[in-house]
Amino acid sequence: MQGKCGLFFTTYAKECQVFHTDFQKSTVALFFLVLLAAPFFLSSYQVSLLNLINIAVIGAVSLNLLTGSCGQISLGHGAFIGVGAYATGICTLNGWPFLPALLFGGATTALVGMIFGIPSLRLKGIYLAIATLAAQLILVYIFMHWTSVTGGAIGMGLDPPVILGYSFDTDLKMFYLTLFFAVSAVLIVKNILRTKSGRAFVAIRDFHLSAESVGINLFRYKLQAFGVSSFLAGIAGGLWAHYTMYINPEQFEIGLSIQYLAMIIIGGLGSVIGSVFGAVFLTLLPEALGIVANLLSGFFPDISTYFLAMRDGIFGLILVFFLIFEPDGLARRWQLAKSYFKLHPFAH
Amino acid sequence: MSLLEVRNVTLTFKGIAALMDVGFSVEKGQIVSLIGPNGAGKTSMLNCISGRYHPDSGEITLNGKNLLALPAHARMSTGMSRTFQNIALFKGMSVLDNLMVGRHSRITYGLLASLLYFGRARKEEDIHRRRVEEVIDFLGLSSYRHKVAGSLPYGVQKLVELGRALAAEPELILLDEPMAGMNLEETEEMARYILDINEEWKITVLLVEHDMGVVMDISDRVVVLDFGQLLAEGAPEEVQSNPDVIAAYLGGENASFLGI
Ligand SMILES: Nc1ncnc2c1ncn2[C@@H]1O[C@H](COP(=O)(O)OP(=O)(O)OP(=O)(O)O)[C@@H](O)[C@H]1O
Ligand SMILES: [Mg+2]
Fold first, then answer.
1. CA proximity to A16, closest of B33, B132, B8
2. Closest alpha carbon to A109 in A141, A137, A76
3. What residues does each domain of chain B span?
4. Of A206, A211, A270, the CB nearest to B91
C-alpha cells in the first residue's frame, strides 16, 4: 500500500473511471490472466460450465439493465433469448457467416423487445409483469408452431460458430468467444449506466413523474431500455444456440425467464457486478448440489434421486432466502468486503 | 415581451375548476411569488407551466414560445426547470447523479456514444460534471456528493432538489414551497440561495410559498390566487394592503402571515 487512507481524485474524469487504484487495476488484470489460462488446466466439462456462465452473464446483465436499473420488470427475458437463438440460427442455416447472423439475431430481438415493451408506457409493476408474461407465452407459441421456420417441437440443429474460416468447435475455443462477448456486454452496460441513458433509466425507475420534469422522454428511454436489453439477450441466445448446436422451444420456456430473474435478485438488482455473481451462482448451483448429493450418497444411498427432485425446491428456497435476508443481493456483500479491505487496518 | 406569460388559463378536474381564467406575467430577472390559501391552485398553475397538467383553455408562453404545444419533457429545453412541493428526488441515485440528471436536456451525445464511452461521451460528461460541481459548491453539498439522495435529511434533500433544477441552467426556475417544513435557520438559508440564484446566476424565479415574511421580503412582484381565481397582482406592499387579499386571508390562520 502507498500509505493513503481513502481515495482522492485530482480530476473528474479520473473519478469516473471504473477501476481507481493501481491495486484494483492489477487485481483485475491478474483475474483475467487467470481466467484466460484456466481452460488449459480444467476438464472440458468444467470449461463447458465456464461457457454457460459467460452466456448467462450476458443474459443477466441485460435483464438487470431493464429490470434492476430501469425498473421495468420482465418475465419474457427467456423468450427474448429464444428470439436471438432462432434468428441467428435461421441466418446461419441460410449460409450467413456467424458474426453478421449474430448481429442480426441481436437486432431482431431488440425489435421484438421494443414491440413488447410498448405496454410499459402504460403499465407498471405487476401489470407490466403480466404483459411481459404474455410476450413470453406468445413467443414460445411461435417457436413451437411456426414449424416451417423454427422446426417446431423437433427443434433446430446448428453448427458451431465459424469466424473468418476458424471454427469454434471445442469448449476451449468457444470459451474465448463467449468470454469476449460477456466482457463486451458487461462493459457496454457499465458504460450506459454511467452516462446519459443510464441515468435516465434509473430516474424512470425512481420517480417517473419527475423524470419527465427534468426533460426525460419516458417513451423514448423505456423503449431504449427494452431495446438494448433485448439486443444483448439476443446475442446471448445466438451464442447459446451455436454453442449447444441444438435449440428447441422448451429451452426458452418461462422457467428460463424466472432463472434470469433469480440471477439478478440473488446478484443484486441494478448492479452490474451483481449480475455476474448471480450468473455464476445459479449456473454452478446445480453442480454444487450434485457434489453434495454425491458426498452424502455414501451415507444415504438413495439421496441423489431425492436431491434431483428437490433441486427446484432448493432453488426456490435460496431465492426466498435472498429476498428476505439479503434483498440487495451478493453485490452488497461484495461492497462490504471491498470497503473492509480498502480501509484495512482501520476498519471498524 | 415578458419572459413568461400566462393568459386565461382554465383547468378543471372532472368539472371542478382548479384554475379559472388566470393570467399573469413574469418579467425577465424578477422574483415573482405566487401565493394563496391552501387549495388555491398554486401547484396546479406550476403543473400547467411545466407540463404535468394540461389546461382546458388558455395560453402559456416562455420567451414567446407556446409551451402548451410541447410535451412535458420537451419544455425543459425551452429554458425552465422546477422543484416540487413534496420532494421528488431520484432516491436511489447519488446526489451527484441527481444533479447530472438535471442536465439531461443539455447533454447532446446519443446512445451509441454512451456504449463506447471513451471519446465523445467522456469529453462531454467532463464538461457537464464541471457545471454540476459549481452547483454543488454553491449549495454547499460537497460532503454529500456521493451519498444516496434518499438517505439524506429532509432539509438537505430540499437543497438537492434545488440543485437538480439549477443544474439545468434554466432561464426560469419554478419553486414549489422550497421552505415548507424547514426551521428558521434553514428557511433563511434557502431565501439567501433564492436571492443569489436571481442576482448572481441571473435566473428568473417563480416562487410558490406560504411563508409571507419571506415572500414579502424577496419578491419583486406578488400574484395572489384564491379558489382558482386571480385575486390580486402587484408589488408586495400593494398586495399586502389590498382589501380583497386581506379578506381572503382573514379569519384563517394565514392572517398573521400577512403581518396585519
Ligand atoms: N390531480 C388532481 N386531481 C383532482 N383535483 C386536483 C388535482 N390536483 C389539484 N386538484 C385540486 O385543485 C385544487 C388546487 O390544488 P393545488 O394543489 O393547485 O393547490 P395549492 O394552491 O398548491 O395548495 P397548497 O397550498 O395546499 O399546496 C384543489 O382543490 C385540489 O383538490
Ligand atoms: Mg401546492
1. B132
2. A76
3. 1-79+170-260, 89-168
4. A206
Residue A33 contacts residue A169 (beta carbons within 8 Å): no
The number of residues making up chain A comes to: 348
Whether A319 and A265 have beta carbons less than 8 Å apart is answered as yes
| CB of B41 sitting under 6 A from ligand 1 | yes
Residue type, B188: E
Residue B224 · residue B33 · CB < 8 Å = no
Backbone angles phi, psi at B175, to 5 degrees: -115, 120
Q: What is the ipTM of this complex?
A: 0.91
Q: What is the pTM of this model?
A: 0.91
**Which pLDDT tens digit goes with each residue over A137-162?**
999 999 999 999 999 999 999 999 99
Q: DSSP per residue over A74-107, as a string?
A: -S-HHHHHHHHHHHHHHHHHTT--HHHHHHHHHH
Q: Which residues contact A346 (CB under 8 A, 6 or more apart)?
A: A5
Backbone angles phi, psi at B221, to 5 degrees: -140, 155
* Rounded distance between C-alpha atoms, residue A186 and residue A278, angstroms: 13
Count other C-beta atoms under 10 Å from residue A180's C-beta.
12
CB within 8 Å: B91 and A207? yes
| CA of B177, closest atom in ligand 1 | 27
The pLDDT score that the predictor gives to residue A344 is: 59
Predicted pLDDT at B63: 94
- Residue B252 Cβ inside 6 Å of ligand 1? The answer reads no
Look up the CATH architecture of domain B1-79+170-260.
3-Layer(aba) Sandwich (3.40)
Q: Nine-digit cell at A52?
A: 454457460
Residues B247-254: contacts with CB under 8 Å, at least 24 apart:
B248/B36, B248/B37, B248/B224, B249/B37, B252/B37, B254/B37, B254/B210, B254/B212
Averaged pLDDT of chain B: 92
Topology given in CATH for the domain delimited by A44-343: ABC transporter involved in vitamin B12 uptake, BtuC (1.10.3470)
**Confidence category of residue A55, pLDDT binned at 50, 70, 90:** very high
User: What secondary structure, in 3-state letters, does A153-205 show?
Assistant: HHCEECCCCEECCEECCCHHHHHHHHHHHHHHHHHHHHHHHCCHHHHHHHHHH
Q: Which three cell numbers stand for residue A76?
A: 419474457
Contact between B171 and B204 under an 8 Å Cβ cutoff? The reply is: yes
| Residue B206, SS3 per DSSP | strand
* Three-state SS sequence of B56-81: CEEEEEECCEEHHHCCHHHHHHHCEE
What does the domain layout of chain A look like in residue ranges?
44-343
Average pLDDT estimate for A264-268: 94
* Cα–ligand 1 centroid distance for B44 (angstroms): 6
Residue A343: per-residue pLDDT: 62
Cβ proximity of A79 and A113 under 8 Å? no
Per-residue pLDDT reduced to its tens digit, A243-257: 999 999 999 999 999
Atom 26, ligand 1: which residue's CA is nearest? B38
